[in-house]
Amino acid sequence: MGADVSLELDDIQSGALRPRPTPYAATYILLKIHDRSAGKELMRRLSVAVASAAHPASPLGDTWLNALLTFHGLTALGVPQQSLDSFAWELRQGMASRASALGDTGESAPEHWEKPLGTSDVHVVLVALAPDRGLLETALGRARESLRGLPGVEAIWQQDCHALPTEREPFGFRDGISHPAIEGSGVPGTNPAEVPLKAGELVLGYRDELGGFPPMPQPDVLGRNGTYVVFRKLHQRVAAFRRYLRERATSPADEELLAAKMMGRWRSGAPLARCPLHDDPELGADRARNNAFDYRADDPTGYHTPIGSHIRRCNPRDSEVAGVARLHRMIRRGTAYGPLLPEGMLEDDGADRGLVFAFVGAHLGRQFEFVQSEWVNGGEFIGLGDARDPIAGSADGQGRFSIPRRPIPRRLDGLPRFVVTRGGEYCFMPSLRALRWLSELP
């Protein structure tokens, strides 16, 4: 795979390319740099503490620490203005400034975000990850050691997350199924029919799907082998989702069917494109088969997987859509936080639960922002007007969702907002060499 592309895996941070283990535990830590010298020393320490994408043959191979920088963080470190100006303009603006385009309005608007998310205080994002809580302490130990004796760097926020052995997220669906293969990474994709993406779609310094090189921060040592990361905390209204299904279904089995139609998969992970009439938990759990489908051959009309369903919007695959779907592919990581709502409970218990999302890609604009604004919060690209994603879209209680059916389509009205943005950041994930370069800024 990708024999003509040689990625410098030992210089690329692990989170850019490597799949996460199953199950796993993770912790996100936000840092503020009060003192520039302390910030630069932190970069020096992180350059040896973070894990690279070159997977070591050891029990700790899936235990890692990664480091991301916001634009405010790059400024706090004293990155020259000429270099700051070379970063993607979306990063320079920040996620809070892009709220309207992303559908972060109303309850999801930045003025309601969990502080300090979306503010100028967030400079560094540390991500510690491991197969279990015990090993997570090893990764967190690396983070603590990097911060030891640096009073000029302050930890200002922390979020603990987890991926269960069942791989279920709070709404009850198996998550983390669809991932693209990247040329030269050595990591296979989960859809055998999908041609590997050019490395430049995910990592800076390599050719992308358009045949050129994506714009890269300068100098080369700062940009090469880096990538952009979108970090978002999303609260999920699980009880409201269950009540919506209960009120519109004719039976418990119909509830599951409606949920599957909205998502595009049964809760087990089995795709409707393969089993449209009933769930198939064995298929859903089979990593070799649960993402092995396309829409032209398996479901061109949407009678199995509705055109407006969540997974079909976020990854149209080989469907005929406005634009080339491959130009908008990215790596998506979702990690649950908070306790699961007990089975059968239809009233909210007041606990905060949801997903911490990380989207990785070399093009913030035509990858994450395009998908969020045009595919999740719009429907024109698939001929559905202003209809939004039935699960993740920024609904206002007037949303609608159509399920193709003969002789008359089934229509769901009054879709409320099931997912509320609690905050987020646009980040740059520098290479290991770039971390050292940042530590040596004059």
Q: Helix and strand layout, with pairings?
A:
Elements: H1 14-17, E1 24-33, H2 36-49, E2 64-69, H3 71-76, H4 81-84, H5 89-93, H6 99-102, E3 124-130, H7 133-147, E4 153-163, H8 220-223, E5 227-236, H9 238-248, H10 252-263, H11 281-285, H12 295-298, H13 310-314, E6 331-337, E7 354-361, H14 364-376, E8 399-403, E9 410-415, E10 419-429, H15 432-439
Antiparallel strand pairs: 1-3, 1-4, 2-3, 5-7, 5-10, 6-7, 8-9
Protein name: Peroxidase
Organism: Sandaracinus amylolyticus
GO molecular function: heme binding; metal ion binding; peroxidase activity
Textual characterization of the structure:
This protein is of the alpha+beta class and 442 residues long. The protein folds into two domains: 241 residues, no CATH class; 152 residues, no CATH class. It is built from 15 helices and ten strands. The chain has a four-stranded antiparallel sheet with strand order 2-3-1-4. Strands 6-7-5-10 form a four-stranded antiparallel sheet. Helix 2 runs antiparallel to helix 7 and helix 2 runs antiparallel to helix 15. The chain is globular, with a radius of gyration of 21 Å. The model has no long low-confidence stretch (mean pLDDT 94).
* Rg for CA atoms: 21 Å
Q: In what range is the share of β-strand residues?
A: 15-25%
Tally of discrete structural domains? 2
- The residue ranges in which pLDDT falls below 50 over 5 or more consecutive positions are none
Strand order of the largest sheet: 2-3-1-4
The count of β-strands is 10
